[in-house]
Amino acid sequence: MSTGTAPLAHEQRTGHEKGLSKGSVGLLGSVVIGVSTIAPAYTLSGALGPTAAAVGTHLPAILLVGFVPMLLVAVGYRQLNRAMPDSGTTFTWVSKAFGPWVGWMGSWGLLAATILVLSNLAGIAVDFFYLAIAQITGNDAIAELTRNVPVNVATCLAFVAVAAWISYRGMEATKVVQYVLVVFQLLVLLWFAAAAFGHVAGGTAFDGLAVRAEWFNPFGVETFSAFAAGVSLSVFIYWGWDVVLTLNEESKDSATGPGRSAIATILVIVALYMAVSLAVLSYSGVGAAELGLGNEDIQENVFAALAGPVMGPFAILMSLAVLSSSAASLQSTMISPARTMLAMGHYGALPAKYARITSRFQSPGYATIAAAVIASVFYAVMRVVSENVLWDTITTLGMMVCFYYGVTALACVWYFRRDAFRTAKAFLTKFLAPLLGGILLLVFFVQTSYDSMDPEYGSGSSIGGVGLVFVLGVGMLLLGIVVMLVQYRRNPSFFRERFETTELPVLD
């Protein structure tokens, strides 16, 4: 690893070049990495059941509603990237719009979210790793190894180490791995959907419902609570598309390519979600018996219950697909925190060592290792303390994502406030879309924070009569403030000077 000094203070604030490998990622490669980070096979397996239980046959409508704020925010991200293609994304853009203090906390939200999800992805990968081996060998006892804490933690650390090693070797190594894993999981999901529809058409499905137009009507959801649950779900199932923006300095067209990739990634995901959700809903229905989506016994892992009846002897492929989905996402998700910390080190918001670039692979080597170590320690501690604590981190993840997505979207509105009203297109893309998306997500952040104070929220765990999800979420933000103040004492110049980046002209 190169240990050269970080950029000088003046260079930190006037240039965004950080030594990353330029032009190493094209549109297709970027979309593949974006889809990988979202992890559709892993996400759908755990999300379809609870959502259908809340909204019934209006599952497709809720998935479409959840897609809207993500698209609105992505429009704002695209405009910011066109003006400032910088791997720091939220950190750089929010610092430019609102100042270094808000920018630092916005980036902390991103870092906290990615570290939380890295630990959970590693845990899911471990579960399906041993499940797949058990299915292949026919030895059910192997699947129980995941409940052995020492074995579980050791396997998890091995997964994180491999993911970090691939990320450390740069984007070329990352792309090769991602193409294989993403294509495999997409093919299996489409195979599953086609097989489910085949059972419906042949009269052999469990419930066998015909697709109806009313399934797509969000106003048919009976209560606002159920509707809000759908919006909450969207944060989890769509999150991850913004990783393609952190690749802007490594993209072939840094100003416009990543923005197109972000929009394309979201569109691909919503189309895939529609196909699979309609197939599952048609096959299983929403009843509480056996294979119905309302059955609580199958909701944690819908595909584990349905793969056999739907795919027959090829059910093992679904376990491998979910395993590859979580493993691929574990590796691709590491891209975002590494490049965010790289940018923070480059501009002086973190110690200079975070700005180190590997001379051989042109990747953020130190930041990648740091992200892997932090995620590993967090997972090991949480897994030893309680499995419920680890599950509650998923809900905490939603809070962090709403926070930094919302702040970044509003940064777009403020940054372009002087020219957003010059044309109708500028008004829609630089003001209205990011404003609506940002407000929606920040309102949800506040609402979730309030609701999570209830001890019954999430897993039902609490500390001192306060819900564990609230303690984790607020604790994360308070920790961010403490770390920020420590860094202020170490390098006050970043927080005192006006934050600058090299800007490119933005064409309407």
Protein architecture, described:
With 508 residues, the chain is an all-alpha fold. It contains 18 helices and two strands. Helix 3 runs antiparallel to helix 9, helix 5 crosses helix 15 and helix 15 packs across helix 17. It is globular and about 65 Å long. The two termini are 41 Å apart. Pfam families: AA_permease_2. Keywords: Cell membrane, Membrane, Transmembrane, Transmembrane helix.
Largest sheet geometry: 2 strands, antiparallel
Helix content: 55-70%
Envelope shape = globular
N-to-C span:
41 Å
- The pLDDT mean sits at 84
Q: What is the multimeric organization of the chains shown? A: single chain
H-E string: HHHHHHHHHHHHHHHHEEHH
From the alpha carbons, calculate the radius of gyration and give it in angstroms: 22 Å
What structural category characterises the helix and strand content? mainly alpha
Helix segment tally: 18
Query: Percent of residues in beta strands?
Result: under 5%
Low-confidence stretches: 1-15, 504-508
Number of strands: 2
What's the arrangement of strands in the largest beta sheet? 1-2
InterPro entries: AA/rel_permease1, APC_superfamily
Subcellular location: Cell membrane
Main location: membrane
Keywords: Cell membrane, Membrane, Transmembrane, Transmembrane helix
